[in-house]
Design brief:
Helices cover about 45% and strands about 15% of the residues. By secondary structure, it is an alpha/beta fold. Strands 7-6-5-4-3-2-1-8 form an 8-stranded parallel β-sheet.
């Protein structure tokens, strides 16, 4: 991390976990642990937990995000949630383009861009996910894949709007598999993403951008990953569901 030029942010992605009472209990356990954190703390929760999370985090340093939004403002999209609906609730962040959305729900680079645009227009800040499949890494095309995903997702995004986007590099082969990129591998790709942003928006914008690592960061490996110069935080899956583990990662990011 380089806190002198950009903010370190730890965001928990709860995925499809926790009922409302369980969410309340986890947040209550988390609040006293992270109250003095020297980094951004975000919890991205299922839609059904958003109201609970917003109420439970009032007056704290924990910010609340959703796990996805649709690109349309309204319409015949059964089962979907618009960015405006999230903003109206008081949600600040939304995850866009998570590998599970791409893998299981037909998300493409083009629809990721539409969702990014809708989120920004509605006033949300975006955690934009990019990352390669195992076969793409083995074919040595990680940079091509991640570069293309980044460029397409940021299409039509102004330099001013860029400041409302966090990019999370999440190698798909390390999501929920227990596998983790080495600290050096994570930093290498994060650095490459920064060079892509620099070509699009200039060096200053790229240096100011928070770029997280999102592939099975946990309490045991967080310190090593966060010690890398281009790893500015984490998008945390399983470890975000345990208050003590999540706090260990936040403590590592606070140093």
């Amino acid at each position: 991390m380089n806190k002198a030029v950009r903010k370190a942010v730890i965001a928990g992605n709860w995925k499809m976990n926790k009922t409302r009472p369980e969410a309340q209990a986890l947040i209550n356990e988390l609040k006293p642990l992270v109250k003095d954190a020297d980094c951004g703390v975000i919890i991205c929760v299922p839609y059904t937990n958003l109201e609970t999370a917003l109420e439970a985090t009032k007056g704290t340093n924990i910010e609340v995000g959703a796990e996805n939004c649709h690109w349309a403002a309204s319409g015949a999209f059964t089962g979907e949630i618009s960015a405006g609906m999230l903003t109206e609730m008081g949600v600040k962040y939304v995850i866009i383009g998570h590998s599970e959305r791409r893998q299981y729900f037909g998300e493409t680079d083009a629809t990721v861009n539409l969702r990014v645009r809708a989120a920004l227009d509605a006033g949300l800040d975006v955690i934009l996910c990019v990352g390669e499949l195992l076969e793409q890494r083995e074919a040595d095309i990680t940079e091509e894949i991640v570069g293309m995903q980044t460029k397409v997702a940021l299409g039509g995004v102004s330099a001013e709007e860029l400041s409302r986007i966090i990019i999370a590099y999440e190698p798909v082969w390390a999501i929920g598999t227990g596998k983790t990129a080495t600290a050096e591998q994570a930093n290498e790709v994060n650095h490459y993403i920064r060079t892509v942003v620099a070509k699009l928006y200039g060096d200053a914008a790229a240096e100011a951008m928070t770029i997280q690592y999102g592939g099975s960061m946990n309490a045991k490996n967080a310190a090593e990953l966060l010690a890398q110069p281009d790893v500015d935080g984490g998008l945390i899956g399983g470890a975000a569901l345990k208050a003590a583990d999540f706090n260990t990662i936040i403590e590592a990011a606070s140093k």
